[in-house]
């Protein structure tokens, strides 16, 4: 009886460490994606400010930055976890997009519009692709 109780406790603590590992992987992936997004937006804004490009190019650039940063987010998460690349990538991308949309709402650059669902799909799919590539990438 006592041995069975110890086995159950070991199983539960093993599951908890697995959950912690997944949460940390997603956290670092979302953090890496946010940093990549910030740096890419900084570079593109500097390029747009010194060039004579029109402001109509800003939305496609922002969508490309979302795609690339979500890809990086999924890739980092799955490389840390080393398993379930598509799932971890998609979850990381969904959480990353929520952060992206929240920051956009706070600073007033994003409104709740029909394009937001397309951006959500872009973020989740690109991070899932990044997750598959990240988990299968050799060091």
In short:
Helices cover 84% and strands 0% of the residues.
Detailed description of the structure:
This protein is mostly helical. Helices cover about 85% and strands about 0% of the residues. It has helices at about 1-50, 60-80, 85-105, 115-135. Helix 2 (about 60-80) crosses helix 3 (about 85-105) and helix 2 (about 60-80) packs parallel to helix 4 (about 115-135). The longest helix is centred in the first third of the chain and has 49 residues, at about 1-50. The radius of gyration is 19 Å and the shape is elongated. The relative contact order is 0.15.
Residues in helix, %: over 70%
Main beta sheet strand tally, sense and closure? none
Roughly how many Å is the radius of gyration?
Answer: 19 Å
State the order of secondary-structure elements, H for helix, E for strand.
Answer: HHHH
Q: How is this fold's topology laid out?
A:
Blueprint: H1 2-50, H2 58-81, H3 85-106, H4 115-136
Helix pairs in contact: 1-2, 1-3, 2-3, 2-4, 3-4
Key structural traits:
139 residues, mainly alpha
